[in-house]
Amino acid sequence: MDLKVSNRGGHNKQAVGTHGYVDEVDEDRLICAAAIKYQKLAGIETIDVTPGRCSTNVDLAYGVNKANAANVDLFISHHLNATPGGFGVEVCYLSAKGKVYADRICAKISALGFKNRGSKLRKNLYELNQAHAPAIIIESFFVDCKSDVDLYHKLGADAIGKAIAEGILGHSIATKTVTSTVTAKVSSYTPVKLGEVTATTLNQRDHANASSAIVSTFKKGDIVHVYGLVDGFYSVVEHKIGKWISAEYVKDITPKVTPVVKPVVAPTGQLYKVQTGAFSSKTNAENETERLEKLGIETTIKLV
Ligand SMILES: [Zn+2]
What we know:
SH3 type barrels, 8 helices, rod-shaped, alpha/beta, Aminopeptidase, six-stranded mixed β-sheet, binds zinc ion
């Protein structure tokens, strides 16, 4: 696809964004990075116009100036919303071309489970006015809405980034994502193993590899219910569902089922005798004794 897109993570640690159950800047950076990853995968040329630490005055101009200088075809600013009682995804636009992208991205992100608040025409936003290219501001979810944030944690930034890239393209991107497979399994998980963490601290990661982002930490002695193994990493039910811990530091403590055998004792003074045969001919009885003795079984012949 012959398309050049600029991506900007909204705000920065000096000119801060909104804050709720998560911080807007922390999460919009992850979503921006994932969106760039999937755009590149789909063959879109991307530039990252995310600002570093700077004042509010510089913050907005930085991305727009960089995008205009690079003559991009689409300007995207990644944000998160916050309003008491608000939830879901919305995308702000100004131009008709911007609305096409906004509608598609709203549809893709809402397909992940967020409420579709729809595309919003905004005439007074700096980035929408100053970017030369069609511009959109994506508000993926509300940082102050617990159910939105819970869903975000379940899905991960990667899934939202992918949905954004698919919204730009107007079709799905066929990729093998571990996350989606695992999310599907979670709804009806059956733990296959009970484990105990053996490392002092054990990082739970976003994906089943040691360089993936850390999402939580287990400590020595923590008990985990394992329901999947991928590339040496266990997916567990505790902490963040659908995330991964190294199997190397988990001891299998699944209880072993051993059948209980109660010995039956003969009544006092009596014995249980084991008989292998009964013969009317003594020769046949002796032949049988010989056969058993060859097998190492001690025998006696008794006339009954
Ligand atoms: Zn924002």
